[in-house]
Design a protein that fits this description.
Blueprint lengths: L1 H17 L6 E4 L8 E9 L2 E10 L15 E10 L2 E9 L4 E11 L2 E8 L4 E9 L2
Antiparallel strand pairs: 1-2, 1-8, 2-3, 3-4, 4-5, 5-6, 6-7, 7-8
Length: 133
Amino acid sequence: MKKLLLAAGFATMATTAFAADPVDGLWKTQPGDTGGYLHVTIAECGSAICGTIDSAFDGDGNQQLEYENLGKQIIWDMVPEGDGQYDSGKIWAPDRDKTYNSKMTLDSQNELTVKGCVAGGLVCRGQTWTRVQ
């Protein structure tokens, strides 16, 4: 009986340790000024959350295979705070080639609000991303 309880305890700990963060997945950004958008893969990287540009699309929805920033990290050091809140990260805005302090909120399983801020968080620019998968 003790062995069974011990095995169940280890199985529970392993499941918890390997459970994916709810924000993990493929996300579609809002269209930029030209109508183009990105798909960003968000996943755990160490104890933080990171996002990498997976693919790019033009305003007509055509995939841009030659997009220069494919594979580039766009989000890093994002810390899960609980209740769908993420903070203390950085986000790179390809359209401006600038890096901002960032925070994210998982509004639902399929919507993620991503913000980049300056001036200690007084001025923020953001988008709502939708889950692709």
